[in-house]
Amino acid sequence: MQPPKSSICVLCAIRPATTHDHVPPKGLFKGLEAQLITVPACSTCNNGSSSDDEDLRFFISVQIGKQTAGSAKLWNDGAHKSIKRKTKLREAVIASTRTVETMDNEGNCVERLGFEVPVRIYQTVFERTTRGLFFFHTGRILSPNTLVVVDMLRGQPELESPEIRSLTRNSIAGEACVYRFGIGEADSSFWLYEFYGAHWVMVRTGSFFEQ
Ligand SMILES: [Zn+2]
Fold first, then answer.
1. Which of 85, 104, 154, 164 is the most buried (most CB within 10 A)?
2. Ligand 1 centre and the CA of 121: distance in Å?
3. Residue 189 C-alpha to ligand 1 middle, in angstroms?
4. How remote is the CA of residue 21 from the centroid of ligand 1, in Å?
5. How many domains does the chain have?
6. Is 192 among the domain residues?
7. What pLDDT, in 10s, does the model give residues 171-201?
8. Is the pLDDT of residue 211 over 50?
9. At CA 23, angle to CA 184 and CA 32, rounded to 5?
10. How confident is the model over 11-21, as a mean pLDDT?
11. Ligand 1 centre from 41 Cα, in Å?
12. Is there a domain that residue 78 lies in?
């Protein structure tokens, strides 16, 4: 499939496209040989995002652990370096670290250390990614007024449900990122992102959920 072209940035839908941006961000595929997706973007959208992309990679990496070869690479070659180098990120994690009560595998209440995962970073990075992929798959640019709502999911959604099975499935870098999507009328669409088989993010665009 030949990727669609645009002279306007498909991420902000305002400024001229002078460069290409990776969607999802290329840092999420650290150390992996992969054919990544790029879309036409302005330099403001492209350059303004790298710090958020790096922080997001850290938060995804700590949540998925490093049980598989891919997720271990993500931590060792990427997230671990970020937390050592980025003082602001480190300070934010330390400042929000608390003792939280959680359930162990036997259903007992146990205390663990937890820290806040910033919703803003998920919103920013996944909104950009979704605007880019919407263009990539439809050739249409979402308006700046289109609502894009990002939800982090706590566990694995019901992937065998008829709703999810009906979505189009695409994968990047083997199974490092699998995303499923459905395009509705006008600017409405539904996206389910899966990273390393262990982390899920749901995104909806358009006005259908305003009602
Ligand atoms: Zn832009």
1. 164
2. 17
3. 21
4. 10
5. 1
6. no
7. 998 879 999 999 999 999 999 999 999 999 9
8. no
9. 130
10. 96
11. 5
12. yes
